[in-house]
Amino acid sequence: YLDEITIKVIKDETVLASALKTGEIDVAYLPNREVDAFLADSKFNVEKMEGGGIATLLTFNPDVPPMNDINLRRAVAHAINPADINKAAYFGKAVIAQSGMWPVNSWAYQPSSAYVPYDVKKAREALAAAGKPNGFEVNIVTWNSPVHQQSAEIARAQLGRVGIKANIEVLTVGPATEKFFAGKATPLFLTSWSRYPEPDFIASTNYKSGAYYNASKQVNADIDALIQQGAATYDQNKRKEIYAKINDYELGQVLWRPMLYSVTYAAAPKKVQNLKTLLSWDGKMTLKQIWIKP
Fold this sequence. Notes:
Blueprint: H1 13-22, E1 28-29, H2 35-39, E2 44-60, H3 70-79, H4 82-89, E3 95-96, H5 120-129, E4 137-143, H6 146-160, E5 165-171, H7 173-182, E6 188-194, H8 199-207, H9 221-232, H10 236-252, E7 256-269, E8 272-273, E9 291-292
Parallel strand pairs: 4-5, 4-6
Antiparallel strand pairs: 1-7, 2-6, 2-7, 3-7, 8-9
Helix pairs in contact: 3-5, 4-6, 8-9, 9-10
């Protein structure tokens, strides 16, 4: 196995792909724009994990106006088409979400009828139900990932079609997260999320009363009881039923709206062995069984 690992940070996607092709680096996550080229290159192996995380996600703070009105939250969710973001920002490589924070390919995942789909007609109906048929103005914070900024611009254009004026603020990831979850200074956060196959991690840190990633910190004794029950139950099928109830509630209240689940691609030249062991349970690299054939 490996005696030494050198990790290089290469932010430019073109430079990253070139470094992999020339042998400057031995393994890398593939930028979406490069996936097809590497799949077609017989000199490389490519590993793929569907549901490696949540690529694009909207989270709402129901305590911060105007997102304190569930109809306006629904209007926002209905107005944004994840398929357009997938095509433009992810080169069609992501999976369009039909459920919540447990992504496809994790055992707790299941499609939910409570998911708010893209539907412009329903967006306008929700605006009318809120008494704002001509739209409203909302501030959205995101962070300075190029793909998030592109996603936010697409979302802003789509919201504008139903009269919702979105103001986009771009910060680095730490201040953006702090501003939304701790500062409660903005009603909407466009972000991404890591993969956590153990569903209690998301349930306890995102949904439990007072949890850091529970944006409003609202107390919900029923959800707390379900979270406790889910963590204390051993039968996986029964746990799945419990998490489905939690998931339906969060989606139905439009507190979290995943738009795209990421598909993680990693590539390496044929000399890199055991590549199938590379992508771990959390969708991230584990190198302990990788070795390089002379």
